[in-house]
Amino acid sequence: MASVPRSFLLLSIIPTILILCADFACCNTGRKTGDGLDTDFSGFSVPLEHSFEVDDVSRFRMRGALQLRGGRETSVSLSQSQLSEEDRKTLKEVAAVDGLYKIRVPRVSLTDRQTERQMDGYLTAFVRACSLVESHLSDVITLHTDVSGYLIGVSIVTIPGACRGTEVEDEVDLEAFNTTLTIIAPTNAPQPETALFIERMDIEHEKRGKPQEQKSFFAKYWMYIVPLVLFLMMSGAQDQSGGGAANGGGR
Amino acid sequence: MSKPTSLFVIFFSLFIMSEAVFEDQVGKFDWRQQYVGKTLFAHFDSHSQSSNKLFLATDKNIFASFNSRTGDLLWRHVDKVGPEGTIDILVLHGQDALMVVGGGRLLRSWDTNMGGLNWEAVLDTGSFQAACFVAIQDTVKHVAVLKKAAISLHYLTNGHQKWVENLPDSDTVQYQAVYSGGEVEVYVLGVVPNSHLTIIAYSLEDGEIIKQVTWSVEAPWLSSVESSCVVIGQGVLMCVDPATLALYTLPIQAEEAPQFNQILLQSLDLEVSLGFQPVLVSSQPHPARSPISEFFLQLGPDHHVLLQLNADGYTIAYVTPFFFFFTSFLFPLQACDINLFSADSGRRLLDTTVIFPLDLNGGKPFKLYVHAFLKKDDSVDYRVLVQTQDHALTFIQQPGRVVWTREEALADVVTMEMVDLPLTGTQAELEGEFGKKADGLFPMVLKRLSSQVILLQAWLAHLWKLFYEARKPHGQVKNEVTIETLSRDEFNLQKMMVMVTASGKLFGIDSKSGSILWKHYLENVQPNAVFKLIVQRTTAHFPHPPQCTLLIKDKDTGLASLHVFNPIFGRKSHIAPPALPRPILQSLLLPVIDQDYAKVLLLVDDQYKVTAFPSTKNVLQQLQEMASSIFFYLIRSDQGNLSGFRLRKDLSTERIWEVVLPTEVQKIVAVNGKRPNEHVHSQGRVMGDRSVLYKYLNPNLLAVVTESTDAHPERAFVGVFLVDGVTGRIIHEAVQRKARGPVHFVHSENWVVYEYWNTKSRRNEFSVLELFEGTELYNSTVFSSLDRPHLPQVLQQTYIFPSPITTMEATLTEKGITSRHLLVGLPSGAILSLPKMFLDPRRPEVVTEHSREENLIPYAPEMPIRTEWFINYNQTVARVKGIYTAPSGLESTCLVVAYGLDIYQTRVYPSKQFDVLKDDYDYVLISSVLFALFFATMISKRLAQVKLLNRAWR
User: What does UniProt give as the signal peptide span (chain A) (predicted)?
Assistant: First the structure.
């Protein structure tokens, strides 16, 4: 049993490489390769491997090559081969038994080229094989990096993602991948918005504060107070309580 | 016209509820229990004969005083956590309690009467070795503190240092003991292991090394003074050598160079149990006098002898101190007896034997603290404080009466669950009727009728009881809660709290009263064990008892064991748990149930093999059928590795995804999924323009929090990753810059709230993440992680929180209709109920018509702390460690238990009590209004009839 998959692997790799040279079915985000201005940030390629087996034992083989470019603006592009006749058959078989289609990329750093080779291990993700078949190989692969540019995770989804059991014509639909590739770096979480809040408070204060403070009590009611005082002064030596009552009444 | 308005007022008054607790509601729905932890030192207050105080110093850095008659806490001083606050020693003299704290950092004197601090002195650096009182002419005036390299003498009255002296050759000699026998010298004993013993005598006056009594005694057999030597009689050092099985005596006050005198145990006809290290116990009743010349020698786990040193200082005879104690264990271990021996004769005093039964669910006795005193008729009486291995304290009086017991294991609760109480017998009868298969129409009708007769009977009995009790004065009616009378109340507000403590003791506590209904001590639990409590079967499946499983895992080896028990009665279940020979990595409770309605627990070992419990044929068959849809994840925080697995039909697993966070950059500090019993009532939020923003409700979502390895304040960060636990897809990845832990977070519904320390602004901040699907749902009927291709929208907002926090949890209610609150434990011991409304990333910066329509609070960077939000008013919970929330039968009410050093239970009503009438609801008013209306309509009807009749006659 052990010899069979190895030869199978070889068989599948050879056409892959052959087609790889000829075909560059890919998608791209960001800058194109070949700027070549900065040697540090010039792109490097890592293999994207996939595995789909009826017995669900992972046997990864080449799917394509990821062109990664680090630096200020990370970008990634994918060059991948078409599926061979045999692969298409297997994929359909795997889909029929609700098996998984797995992909993996090696752990690399986008910025630090020195440590890139030393890191071992892979990042793995999966999607149900049936959904890949039913979506006619249109998948979305997302690479996640951390703050210092290490690849930390990969994810694959198909659009549409559901398995409805619809028949797929293999020759037409299962030949080439229709891949959307993105790379996502962590977003910066917001800080408390103190500056904006203070600014807004100031504006509100100014709006509200000015007309209110302008008029004091005396300024508002001088027309009542002045005659009252005059009246009190005119009436002369009246007793205090009477004056107080009048004052209260006036207000 | 006035009728509708008055009705409206009554109707409206139902909704005006108070937010805080009223004075008369204090203690009505809540209770608090205070604990101190495992006792390290205990002293009786021997200052006055009638005193009933007890002083304890514990491993939780607490100095406390108890009332020895009731076991109630009189006062308690909670010091800092960790080595800074450890109590090295507690000694008592008169009204002063002296304490060395923090590994010899501070010397404190407490007033034992009031618990106030007399003084505190800062000691020189150096690790603490020993301390003792020093007396001259029968009055104790000083205390000597021995450090690794120095000895200092302090005044007892004010703590001032009298003198401090460096010890000679402190790099080679280990000074371990200090001794004062009431003379003008203080002796320091040190040892060079397996070489010789050093004795130094210091003058009390000025700390001079007097009379050149610094000699070294050859002692190649001695390795530690602390563990194998005691001072007895007139300054005689008594050591025991386990190798040669001999006792050695040495007069330390001798003028000329003394030598050890060897006494073979064989010559005394004594034999040591195989492999046992003999232990010496002596007693110095008063620091101004030399110790008594009688001592204990423990020869085996259950074998002690009482010996007396003869006046010549070299020979030994059997006898006893004036008061002493002696324990012997009866076999089988069901009871324990304590005897008192006379020091003069060595004979057992008559009528002093105390036999007290051991709790079968408790630990073995571990230490005894005896307080003996003379009664008025000159007979001897004594009290004993027994400390058992499960940290419980039992106070016993003659003749064998247990006065009180304190379960100090509850000071360190690790995890807990709340379990519904069982139904009463009659209710269960009714339930049972539905459970059984139908056997014909007529028997069913009969059964229904009979059960309804039973219900009627029970109701009448209940009414009679109510009537009977109503006639009694109010204070006498007491609802004693016992394990037999436990039954679920109408609104399921009373539950059983199953608490797991670090010592391995399990408790069942009634949530209403706080009384301990059962306890079970698990022996052989390692001190570094990790516990996980799982409710496998609730009380809802009547003929089957509820079932809890405790997974106990050794942190170092990973080896685990299961303890299966009934959470209501605490009894161990007869179901045999599976043997787990390999370390367990992960445990998961599946929604799959076996034929006995127990949920299936899967345990994954280090070879990724799965063990199911229970593992009946039925379960295995179900697992095989479902295998391809059972996914689980493993997290190795030391490697930064998150990986997902899928179950295969043969119960092996396959790795299907892997995410690696490089440990050079950040380390995983916490991972949290959602609570499985959480219900979300509303699928979305209605916005101001009447469109709906759907929540992203992924039950498999994990929140992973990381901290940067770089601790520099400018570069430190806290990372928050939202990972789907089935597919391994990183849903969201955010980095909080210039931030550092400890991070506390809550993950629930469609939001994550986390709290961290901002290193730049030096303050605590709260951040909230909310996930939305958008205005359209991808698949509204069912959520599948495998079929959700679009990433959710993530909204986030951050606020300043004016206090550090220690723990955080969200409220939980039955149906999830009630709005959520966050329960935040503050270091002050207060528990803050913070409305989630304040932590809403949609709070607008600028108020608009739409936001006002939605009732969004305008954004303010600072989160308020209002004192009326403290749910535990003045009942602070010291060192709150965790908060547990459980739904009750009432939608408005959430049960809360906060645990730490103390345990506090209460109820919270996040949306006020919308489904409950107020306590002081005016039944008289509403019924009188109703009656008045009823009669008014009757009368007016009659009047109208008369009027109509009259009109017809006219």
Answer: 1-29
Residue with tokens 């004091």: A216
Q: What residues of B are in contact with residue A188 (Cβ under 8 Å)?
A: 734-737
Cα-flanking dihedrals φ and ψ of residue B471, to 5°?
A: -80, -25
Q: Residue B942: phi, psi to the nearest 5?
A: -60, -45
> How wide is the angle at C-alpha B688 spanned by C-alphas B683 and B690, nearest 5°?
60
> Whole-angstrom Cα distance, residue B22 to residue B919?
11
Q: What is the pLDDT of residue B437?
A: 58
Cα distances (Å, whole numbers) of residue B716 to B28, B712, B758? 47, 6, 9
Q: Among B643, B733, B767, select the one facing A186 at the smallest CB separation.
A: B733
Which of B628, B660, B789 faces A107 most closely, judged by CB atoms?
B660
Q: Which of B659, B670, B840 is nearest to B741 (CA)?
A: B670
Q: How big is the A-B interface in CB pairs under 8 Å?
A: 138
What confidence tier does B928 reach under pLDDT thresholds 50, 70, 90? Answer: very high
Residue B32 has pLDDT above 90, yes or no: yes
Nearest CA to B693 among B598, B839, B795? B795
- Residue A210 tokens read as 């000015």
**Which residues 184-213 on chain A approach chain B with CB closer than 8 angstroms?**
184-194, 196-197, 200
pTM: 0.83
Task: Please state, in angstroms and rounded to a whole number, the distance separating the CA atoms of residues B432 and B276.
Answer: 58
Question: Which of B628, B698, B714, B733 would you mutate first to test chain A, the one with the most A CBs within 10 A?
Answer: B733
pLDDT at B11 over 80: no
Token pair 């009444």 is found at A249
- pLDDT tens figures, B441-453: 888 888 888 888 8
Asked if A125 lies within 8 A of B657 by C-beta distance, the reply is: yes
10-residue averages of pLDDT along chain A (251 residues): 37 34 36 39 78 84 83 77 84 86 86 60 89 87 87 88 75 79 89 88 82 69 87 70 41 38
Tokens 């104790």 appear where?
A: B140
**Cα four-point dihedral sign A200, A204, A207, A210:** negative
Phi-psi region of B180 (alpha: psi -120 to 50; beta: other; left: phi over 0): beta
Residue of A nearest to B722 (CA): A186
Report CA B817 to chain centroid distance, whole Å. Answer: 31
CA-closest candidate to residue B481, choices B470, B497, B505, B466: B497
pLDDT of the residue at B942: 95
**Chain B contact for A124, CB < 8 A?**
yes
**Is pLDDT at B604 greater than 80 in this prediction?**
yes
Which pair of structure tokens corresponds to residue B634? Answer: 């493993």
Q: Calculate how close chain A gets to B659, using CA atoms only, in Å.
A: 5
Which residues of B are less than 8 Å from A187 in CB distance?
Answer: 732-735
Chain A nearest CA to B830, separation (Å): 25
Q: Is B698 on the interface with A (CB under 8 A)?
A: no
Contact: A187, B735; criterion CB under 8 Å: yes
Best interface-test mutation with A: which of B630, B659, B668 has the largest number of A CBs within 10 A?
B659
ipTM of the complex: 0.76
Q: What angle do CA B928, B473, B21 make, to 5 degrees?
A: 65
- List the 805-864 stretch of B: residues with Cβ below 8 A of A: 845-846, 859-862
Q: What is the mean pLDDT of residues B314-339?
A: 46
* pLDDT at position B399: 73
- B284-306 burial: b if 16+ Cβ within 10 Å, else e: beebbebbbbbbbbbbeeeebbb
Least confident of A56-70, B315-329, B824-838: B315-329
* Cβ proximity of B107 and B154 under 8 Å: yes
Task: Residue A131: list chain B partners with CB under 8 A.
Answer: 786-787
